[in-house]
Structure formats: C-alpha cells, structure tokens
Amino acid sequence: MKTIVANWKMNVGVRESVALARGTLLALRGKPHLPDVVVCPSFTSLGEVRKVIARSYVSLGAQDVSSQDQGAMTGEISARMLFEAGVTHVIIGHSERRNLLHETDELIAQKVVQAFTHKLVPFICVGESKKDRETTHHTEVVRAQLRVALSLTDRKQLGRFFIAYEPVWAIGTGVNAGVQDILEMHQFIRHEIVEYLGDRTPAFGVLYGGSVTGENAYDYLREKEVEGLLVGGASVKLTHMTEILKAAQSVLERQSS
Ligand code: PEP
User: Fold this and answer.
1) Is 169 a residue whose pLDDT tops 90?
2) What confidence tens digit (pLDDT) does each residue in 222-254 have?
3) What's the CA gap between 24 and 42, in Å, rounded?
4) CA of 198 to the centre of ligand 1 (A)
C-alpha cells in the first residue's frame, strides 16, 4: 500500500480546503487501485472538509496536536478534541514547527503520547538540516529524533504510526532528495525503529517528504521502501496533486499485475 498525505499548512482557508477535498475525491473516483490518502487542512477547515470526505477513502488529518491532555492551555487543540472532530491522523514534529516555533524533541514525544492515547495515527516527522547532511551527521541526527520521539510512549500504548523522513533542506525549496539517499535513510529508519522497539514494534510505514511534485512522485513511489509521500506545496495545487495521485495509482496497478 502507498499513503499520500496532503499537508495544506496555513495556505488555504475553508472554501479552498473544501474545493481541494472535492478535487481530491474526483481524482480518485472510479480508479481501481487507490492509495490511502490523508488530507490535513487547518484546524478551522476540519469540520467542512470532514463533511466532503465522509464515506470516502480519504481520511482526515490534523497538522498538529497539543502535548497536553486538557487544561488551561489557551489556543491549544487536544488529541481528544481532534478525535471528536473526526480526525484520524496527525502530523507531529514538522520541521517548520521545530524550527519556527522551537518545538523540542521532548515536546514532540509528549505529542506522540497524546496521539496514541486518543487513537490517532501519528506522522512523526524527522529529518536533518543541510549542515547535518554536509557533515555526514544525518543518520545520527535522525536516530536521536526517532528515539526521543518514541521515548515517552508506553510500549503497550503503541499503535500504527508513520515516520515521515523530511530532510529540512528539501522542504519547500524545490530541491528534492535523490532516490538513493532516501532509500538509505528509509532502511536506516526501519532498522532503528525495530531495534529500539524490539518485539513490541507495531505496523509502521516510512514516508518521504520534501519538494515532491507530479514529476518526481513516481520515481519515489515505485520503490518498495518508500511507503508513501508527505506533500506540502504541491498538495494545494489540484493539478499537481492529481498527478501525484496518478503516480501512486500507476505504481499500485503495476504491483498488482
Ligand atoms: C511538508 O510540508 O512537509 C513538505 C514536504 O513541503 P513541500 O512538499 O512543499 O516541500
């Protein structure tokens, strides 16, 4: 299976989110080989998008979640609230939140706990900076991010999850990572997770994110180790998103024949 996650960020309001959700459904209609698709609108658009995708193959994701269960946390949205709003998936630890909003690995670990506690499937984002890659510290950095992110979760609470490998230098820059680098990192991530969680490891997938387009999506998705894509910029342009979904359908069709 392949999973395509659309991260609409703070780019579109309710009306455009509804149009994107409708367009996404249209792009999938009548196709025999469907990827799992998760759309992640802003909090304010969740309710309307939920209505559009009801009873479809498309799932509803949030772009973030509070690290706390409830309480005096003005402006925060808890995992329980997201669940109540029909959300099934949540992006945690996106590099924009790490870098612009100073989220730490420890805070991200608390958010992961909240997601599992309230039965949300987390997309845990990890990835190195340009400097880390240039100084060949990328695997070390990703290992530390993975371990801390899962460090507070009781092994018995673990549910299905995804790791989204998103090198910071590739996000929103138009400079996408090469297939070989991604394969190496995905294998590394898979190995690290299994080593860290041992025989308690639940089903998990490893996604790639970073300047994915309709043109490069197929080359990533045809690789077994790339279990899906987290798409930012291209996901708010319906023609680009449709191309990415087509690429996923072609790969799935090929695999089934
Ligand atoms: C992202 O927001 O996670 C992302 C990968 O963005 P973009 O596709 O624009 O690089």
Assistant:
1) yes
2) 999 999 999 999 999 999 999 999 999 999 999
3) 16
4) 31
> pLDDT at position 149, please?
97
How far is Cα of residue 66 from the mean position of the Cα atoms in its chain? 17
For ligand 1, pick from 40, 165, 166 the residue to mutate: most ligand atoms within 8 Å of CB: 166
Q: What's the 154 CA to ligand 1 centre distance in angstroms?
A: 30
Ligand 1 center to 211 CA (angstroms)? 6
Q: Which residue's CA is the nearest one to ligand 1's atom 4?
A: 232
Catalytic site positions: 94, 166
CB 109 within 8 A of CB 151: yes
Give the per-residue pLDDT at 200: 80
Q: Is 224 exposed, middle or buried (0-12, 13-18, 19+ CB in 10 A)?
A: exposed
Return the bridge partners of 126, or none. 165
Question: Across residues 150-175, what is the average pLDDT?
Answer: 95
User: From its phi and psi, is residue 220 left (phi > 0), alpha (psi between -120 and 50) or beta?
Assistant: alpha
Work out the burial of residue 33: count CB atoms within 10 Å of its CB; fewer than 13 is exposed, 13-18 middle, 19 or more buried.
middle
Residue 257 has pLDDT above 90, yes or no: no
* Alpha-carbon dihedral sign for residues 106, 111, 116, 120: negative
